[in-house]
Amino acid sequence: MYESYRSFASVYDEFMDGTDYQLTADKIQDMITRYGVSKPTQKRTGVTESRDVLLAAEKNLVVDLGCGTGKLTEILADRGYDVMGIDLSEEMLSMALERRDKLRHRTLYLCQDMREFELYGTAGTFVSVGDSVNYLLTDEDMRKLFARVNTFLFPRGIFVFDFKTLHLYRDVIGDRTIAEDRDDCSFIWDNWFDEETAINEYDLSLFIKESEDPDDNAFRKYQEIHRQRGYTLEEMKEYAQAAGLLWVAEMDSDTMGPVREDSERIFCVVQEQNKKLPHAMK
């Protein structure tokens, strides 16, 4: 987890250009609207929220855990949400800051471990998508994440996350080599899946063009090792229950319909259920 995305950070967005972040934001926004408490700035109205500005700010805060280069984070900011991004990679966060500054947003980014993050208050919504939770390799790591989220969730706030399934790693990409060649960068991605631990190891070789000069064709090779664990829906439900969170919904990430045996990525929503709502917010 700690060694990942050092060299890859510089070309991450280019290789992820096939990911529809707007569509992902649509899915998240729909789940916040249906199940959550947070609202975009332009939709905040009424006497209730004006009674306590600080509580309203916490209720409407959306925290993106494992935010990476901030692409999704800034889309949510564009949609009017008060957002914060948390990631452990300084390299990824430096790119998130560049994106934020270009857009003239005020997003706060923190370099913290998603298992041990600290906030000054609560947040109405936590989000973690795009493999982030798969980088947590042990049951204890996952329990820490869910417990930490529950600690900082606003009363009845939600945690929206997705994860790659055991089926994907074991039956689809495990023990395969994936490669892609582009004009200024290429990669070779070798996979080894361990059945006993459910951990998939990616040995990543990157070839990145050193100069923007079209006549300079020198490439530098970088190597990284990534490890991700495949999880089952049953395991995720156990982690949420152990943290005291209420399981709300799960859906296949591609169809947003029922989860199937061959689902490769699953979207989930869990909710805080034990904290009392501040009197000013009732």
Folded structure, characterized:
With 282 residues, this protein is α/β, with parallel strands linked by helices. It is 30% helix and 30% strand. It contains 9 helices and 11 strands. The protein has helices at 12-15, 21-35, 47-50, 53-59, 71-78, 90-103, 139-152, 166-173, 233-242; strands at 61-65, 82-87, 108-111, 123-128, 153-164, 177-181, 185-194, 199-209, 219-229, 246-252, 265-271. The protein has a 7-stranded mixed sheet, with helices on both faces. The chain has a 4-stranded antiparallel sheet with strand order 6-7-8-9, covered by helices on one side. Strand 1, helix 5 (71-78) and strand 2 (82-87) form a beta-alpha-beta unit. Helix 2 crosses helix 5 (71-78) and helix 7 (139-152) crosses helix 9. The longest helix is centred in the N-terminal third of the chain and has 15 residues, at 21-35. The protein is globular.
